[in-house]
Structures are given as C-alpha cells and as structure tokens.
C-alpha cells in the first residue's frame, strides 16, 4: 500500500498557490503592466480612424402603372445586393474616388427589414462624414439609375408593340375603305335577314339597315379610325416620354422610396484604435500570461534543484572513494 503522506505530496493546496503567486508577484505584475503600457502607447501613437454610418430604408410605393411602364422592374433586394457586390470591383472606384473602395467604404443590406447600411472611414471626423455623403449619393444614383433603365426598357417595348398595333389597325382600315367603295349603299330592309344577322351576333344597327353589309363596314371603319387615333396618340406620348429623362426620373422617384434613417454625421470618437478598451484587454491578457508562466516556472523549479543537488553530490562521492 502507498503511504498517505506519499499520496498527498503531489496535491496542490490554496497555500501552495498563494506562495507561488507571492514568489512570482514581480513577474506577474511586470507582464501585466508592461503589456498594458505598451498597448496604451501603441494606441496613442497609431493614426486614428473615424467611421461615419448611414442607414437607408428602401421600399416601393404603390403607384398607378401607366401603360405598363412599371412592369418587370428590378427588385429592391436585387438592386441593393448588386450595389453591395460592386464594392469589390472597379466600377464604383471612380465614383467613390478610391482605387480600393473596400478600404474606406462598406455596405450591407438587410433583406428582412429592407435596410441598406453604409459606412465610410476617414482620418478625421470631417473626412469620414464627407465619404459617407459620397457613398450615399453613389448608392442613390445607382439604385435610381437601374430603375430608370428598367422603365426605359418598358417604354421601348411599349413603343414597339404600339407601332405593330398601329400598322395592323391602319392595314385593316385601308382594307375596309377599299371594300366600302364596292359595297352597295342602298337596298331594302328585310326582317328575316335582319333576324338571321342578329342571331349571328351582328350589330343590330347594321342588321336592320337597308344595306347591312355597307352599314357593318361603316361601323368597322369608324371603330378602326378611333383605334388608329388612340394608337397614334399613345405612340406620340411614349416618344415624348422617352425623350424626357426628367419625367422618367420623376416617375422613378415616386415609385422608389429612399428614406434616410441615420444621416451622415461627424463621429465623436475614433473607431480604431480604442486606447481604453485595448489597454484593458492587454492588461487582462498580460495577467493571464503572467499567472500561467509563474506556475510553469514553479513546476520546472524542483527538477532544476534536484539536478543541481545531484551534480554537487558527485564530486563529494568521488573524494570519499579516494
């Protein structure tokens, strides 16, 4: 059996811990204060960086859709995420006046709440604010520009379709006018014929006329003339709208709602470095390292002492043998 005293020699009591910490107090205190002071000095000497943040709410207002010009427009999430992805490209470098936009600018989109979070960094509070205003303007121009492109595409598609409809209506009107020249414009009304025509869903006015064919063609001519006039008016409206960018921008401005929840402002404190926080963290880290090193040194101390005693005993043994 192992004696109780031998079994308990390796146990560490609170007194042992206290004695270890007391013997290594200078080491622990030195590491703690040294690391904290070095971090504080570094934080004070390092160039300060200020950050200005902007929060923008994006939404689409419920507006009337004149002539289908607001159909198939890009989604807000797609537009905002596209702007976020462009940060790492050179497309925005010129607008943001930075060769590497991600070094000074940052953009994130919260799809659930529809919020576009923008931030800009600078060496001074004023520079950070100016850069925040710049990225806000670039973001608004990008979002509005993509919406304007969508509206212009819809207008061009409506122009092409209206032109086709106008050509078809003009062709039908031309054909009906040619038939009117050969159709008899006089005759005698026949009740039996009128009833048969009405049964085939012919206009009652044309069916009961003296010359149903002529009357029907006249009504068709009137209808196609009205249709041609409407298509020509619509074509003229679309052409004028396509040539008026201000009107398109106004329409997009009514649909795309960009609300600035947090405007650009000059920050009061730098975002990096933060001397107080960094110094506290460095002090705690130095304390942990000091305590750990104290126990490691204490664990190595008995082995070193035993080796020294063994080395000192060897010459004495040799002398006794002689």
From TrEMBL:
Annotated TM spans: 27-46, 276-296
Subcellular location: Cell membrane
Coiled-coil ranges (or none): 152-179
Pfam families the record matches: Wzz (PF02706)
Cellular-component GO terms for this entry: plasma membrane
Domain Polysaccharide chain length determinant N-terminal: from-to ranges: 10-91
Keywords on record: Cell membrane, Coiled coil, Membrane, Transmembrane, Transmembrane helix
Membrane topology label: Multi-pass membrane protein
Listed InterPro entries: Bact_polysacc_biosynth/exp, LPS_length_determ_N
PANTHER family for this protein: CAPSULAR EXOPOLYSACCHARIDE FAMILY (PTHR32309:SF31), TYROSINE-PROTEIN KINASE (PTHR32309)
Protein name per Swiss-Prot or TrEMBL: Chain length determinant protein EpsF
